[in-house]
Design a protein that fits this description.
mainly alpha; Hypothetical protein af1432; 16 helices
Amino acid sequence: MLPHAVTEFSRRADDPNASSRELGSIIESDTGLTCELLKYVNSAVFGLRKKAASAQQAISLLGVRQSKLFLLTTGIKVALSSRESKLVNFRAFWAANLERALFAREVAKLLNADADLAFAAAMMQDSLLPVITTEMCELYTKYCALEDADAPDLVNFEQKKLGWDHPLATAYIMWAWNFPDDLLCCILFHHDGFALLQDTALADTAAAAVAVASLLPDPLRQVRHGLKQLVQLSEKWPEFDLMTIAAQVEAHVAALSPGTSVELSLLRRCEKLFAELAETADTSVADSLPADCTA
């Protein structure tokens, strides 16, 4: 279950008559959430001259909608961190989530899409995986043990073995929790990859940004050749500079979550991959993009 303060804030935030003072009081009923919100708004990412000293001030600076998205993200993290997982290391899991969320936010800016929505959706998209992988540990252990050359993407593996996948299951749970429709859309389609960049209705939305960010490496190796696909996307989309975005992500991780331990950061992975490609002079990828795939 989500923390009570999160569900109550989400309910009251939908009321246009709710004041910042009332909403701030709801957050301040949970000390942990208050600390997380203040740490977020006062981080170097926002570069505020005057720091927020209360939840009410934080809401005024962020806005109700962005505050709601941040609290939903944090609430999911709190709810899941109280559970034990047989397969997922939570520290590595959430570090990868943060990198992906920051990456999705940068891609959303390139698309002129909702960057805050992209950040929240990318943070939440895999939130059910620690639960599912524990309940069906043997099945997911077999997936993790597959060699890269033989492994399908995780969603294809799930669909074949289970008849459903974790994006669908996560979206269903969040629909039952009355999460916003646009957030559900981002989560439901987050493994549709570059197909969303070619969809006339979704190409310039947060959903497309989240789908692109979902190609990043993660502890479960959901997309084995995703980073190489992003290299090819950068060749077809000049504004999408993979190394620049990776450097921005690394700086923002340090600002938002000091001390976060990433075994191999996105920037380091990109540097390593580009060095390997330079040595082999081979930019081919396992799953090539359609010739007309442009943003």
